[in-house]
Specification:
A: Rossmann fold; 25% helix; 28% strand; globular; B: mainly alpha; MetI-like fold; 3% strand
Amino acid sequence: MHRLELRSLIIKREGFAAGPFNFVLKEGDKALVYGPNGYGKTTLLMSIAGILSYEGSVLLDEREVRSVSLERRGITYAPARPSLINGASVLDNLKMSGNEALEIAERFNLRSILQVKAGGLNEGARKMVQIAMALGSSSVVVLIDEPFAFLSLQNAKLVLDEIARAREKMIVITSHERLEGFTSYIDMEKYQIKG
Amino acid sequence: MDDRFFLFITYLALLILIVPIAVLYWTVGAAGLMQAFENYQFIESVLVTLVGALAATLLNVAIGTPVAYSLSRRLVRAESAFYDIFLSPVSIPHTVVGIMLLLAFSPVSPLYPALRYISPVDNLLGLSLAMFYVSFPIYLMSIKETFDKSDLDLELFIQSLGRSRFYVFTRVVFPENAGSVLRIALLSMGRAISEFGSLIIIAYSVTFLPFFRYVMPATVFIWYNYDVYGLSASLGYAAGLLTISLLISLGVYLLSRRNA
């Protein structure tokens, strides 16, 4: 059973700090980080991924994430901007992740655009491909920044269904508002460090 | 003064650049240009220059691209110090570069035990090495600028999917920036072709059998004709090499437009 623990985590970025965060996620848990713009949702996700430095600890299976190289951490971080390899087809992008990403793409109704170059897609389609790649990865922790940005209600529902389906992963997503159906909630407004 | 000052200074700079080119072509004329390209010695000198410049450019791409990436992503400590060192050939006089390279292969060099059986003098190795040395900073500077602007979020995302940085570099960063790499490679090739100072020291007359026997690189060939036979003898060759350089500049421009 995998376990992600934030222990007295304080995140910092240019004149901004938030924390201390103390919480534990187990396999199958889904956490929602919510709050207004500028309250550190992205910074928290990037800190959990070990991309940004932090104070305190982020432990995956009792191991500090920053002690392991990014590709071996078992933590996938999908940024808010739907970054894809523009010169490669959707199929080739999905293959960067693995076979499960292809199955998810199928459920996301992306079959008709598999041969299209990612650079030619609109932001909504790019976001769907990126989420399929993130959820289809072999990582045990998946962090998705603003998964519903650029998406229609119908596609947002597909994404929520897919998140619920991922029972072997710990998933943390960000949103401007509180949504129902998550096992843990982090309200960023409560963690702001003044001064 | 308003905008007229800036317009004036811009047009003045353009004039300073264009007038010498126009005067050279005007003086030589189409017939003189054709005559230059009918001279076997000049053709040979252009060919040896292009071969050396191509080898230097391939070295730039093979070495400069990963170096620029590691500096851009700060994979080495004190990357700005490394960057300054890599750019230093820009301010070293090129005749000095020629002498430095010559010494690097001589018995006084610490590299001599490893390089004792290799001589860079008057061969393709010396020619390419000198061209590489002087064009490397231009390649590195431009390609690093490209990487500085490229999508870091994408790299982090792909790496976090479990792919190594090397994989990301070869399969994501390089292909996504291939157009820029080609444009900048062409730019550095243009710089390599125009090299003269270091070549008169290390590669004055290149032999690379069975293709080249005592062939002067084009810039040396032009200078030789000017020095020995006078200005009029070198004009056609100068216009010939200028044409090749301008064609490369045109290629860089077209690639820039395509990438924009």
